[in-house]
Design brief:
Layout (H helix, E strand, L loop, with lengths): L1 E12 L6 E12 L3 E5 L6 H8 L7 E6 L2 E2 L5 H11 E4 L11 H12 L3 H14 L15 H13 L5 E5 L7 H18 L2 E6 L2 H6 L2 E6 L2 E2 L2
Parallel strand pairs: 3-8, 3-9, 6-7, 7-8
Antiparallel strand pairs: 1-2, 1-4, 4-5, 9-10
């Protein structure tokens, strides 16, 4: 079964003034359980493609299917529900909630999903331990280094075991050892649970672990 399929996908920014074509008719199928890397220079369309697949942005033209369901015309409320239940995100800027602790940030998605307090606390503590943050559960983002914040973000994205994880440069702010450990954690979840991972990356460590590499240039797939 396909996790994601995009057909003739175009995205144009500033259409009325100075149009910038970020994606130009992209076709791509991603099977369930893939561990896939989108690679290419800055401005090639990697992040735009991730944002469209995740329903964070809408295409100018084309269709997007997630788990067989077309999401292109879904109302915002249904897109939000899809993101909450089926998709995990790892952003380059972390996107942690500054007033919450590391533990509360990891719990947050499960709170919105209605997971019972004891269950979500147990799962959040376990995943923080796995990403090497045991003992830092009560620290707020400003009390953590960039690498530690990224580990919290990764923990939050995978704790509820979504069907698909979209990761935008997830290792960009990590040292090589931490980056490798996090990638291995995600690869393990991919192998054991069949979670589909789609990365945008410049990192050779991600490319080495990816089972498929899709190269973009100037908004088109070139290889």
């Amino acid at each position: 079964m396909e996790s994601v399929k995009v057909l003739a996908l175009r995205k144009v920014y500033n259409e009325k003034r100075m149009p910038v074509e970020a994606l130009q008719g992209v076709d791509l199928s991603i099977e369930k359980g893939e561990f896939l890397a989108l690679v290419g220079p800055s401005g090639s369309g990697k992040t735009t493609l991730l944002n469209l697949i995740g329903g964070l942005d809408r295409p100018t033209e084309g269709k997007i299917f997630v788990e067989g369901r077309e999401i292109t015309e879904l109302p915002s409320s249904e897109l939000a529900e899809l993101r909450l239940r089926r998709i995990g995100f790892v952003f380059q800027e972390y996107n942690l909630i500054p007033v919450l602790t590391a533990l509360e940030n990891v719990e947050y998605v499960m709170l919105l999903q209605g997971v019972k307090e004891m269950d979500r606390r147990e799962r959040a503590l376990a995943i923080l331990k796995e990403v090497g943050l045991e003992g830092m559960e009560k620290r707020k983002p400003r009390e953590l280094s960039g690498g530690q914040q990224q580990r919290v973000a990764v923990a939050r994205s995978i704790v509820s075991e979504p069907a698909i994880v979209l990761a935008d440069e997830p290792t960009a702010n990590l040292d090589s050892n931490t980056g490798a450990a996090l990638l291995d954690l995600m690869r393990g979840l991919n192998e054991k649970k069949g979670v589909t991972f789609i990365f945008s990356t410049h990192d050779s460590m991600v490319m080495e672990r990816a089972r498929r590499i899709v190269r973009l240039k100037d908004g088109t797939i070139v290889a």
